Amino acid sequence: MLTRLYQWTLAKAAHPHAERWLFAISFMESSFFPIPPHPLLGLLCLAKPEKALRFGFICTLASVLGGLLGYAIGYFLYEAVGISLLKALGLYAKFPAAACYLQQYGAEIILIKGATPIPFKLITITSGFIGLSLFTFIWASIASRAFQFMIVGFLFWKFGRPIKAFIEKYLALLSGLFLVLVVGGFIAASMLTGGSSDKADACSNATMESIGKLKT
């Protein structure tokens, strides 16, 4: 099923309205669609490097808007829709820890997500469930999504098709370095404010029974 969806997504690169499909897939992926827009973005940038920045912006905008839908599902429809959706996507088991970490760290988790493979839909639905500040959710989502999509668009726009090999080889490394810097900054800030790792450890062992207390 996932393989067919993946092939269906890639096929949209040759569609006459490929940009609209890029927007739609980026929007859907932030709340309920299992296939990320990155492969389609890469194909479009490879075919038309001069439009790569535009493609990156489309992904960013659509993903943030789709994230608001995910937030609404978590906030208004968690019991009716959210639970079934998370189970269908195979993310239900990760929900308690995600809820705990978002409650503890908020924007930091969303920003870190931009440099990791954590499904963004898990973050958006969980953010709505715990009632994370909408302003915080929006600005952190913009920063996180722009990091993932605009950097790809910029590299293709600046260097053209030859950058494909570089992106495939080093983007994961650069993302990892970014993550180290971000996490290091949060650890330092926690130490300066007297924070403890006990809460983080508690989050890693969070259960569905405990997250009912997290919603604000």
If you had to describe this structure to a student in words, what would you say it looks like?
The chain has one domain. The chain has helices spanning 2-11, 18-29, 38-47, 52-76, 78-88, 95-105, 107-113, 120-130, 134-159, 163-192, 198-204. Residues 185-194 have low confidence and may be disordered. The protein is built from 11 helices and no strands. Helix content is 74%, strand content 0%. It has 216 residues and is mostly helical.
Gross morphology: globular
User: Topology as H/E string?
Assistant: HHHHHHHHHHH
Range of helix content: over 70%
Rounded Rg: 18 Å
Q: How widely separated are the two ends? A: 37 Å
What structural class is derived from the secondary structure elements?
A: mainly alpha
Give short descriptive properties of this protein.
216 residues; mainly alpha; 74% helix; 0% strand; globular
At a glance:
The protein has 216 residues and is mostly helical. Helix content is 74%, strand content 0%.
Topology of this protein?
Blueprint: H1 2-11, H2 18-29, H3 38-47, H4 52-76, H5 78-88, H6 95-105, H7 107-113, H8 120-130, H9 134-159, H10 163-192, H11 198-204
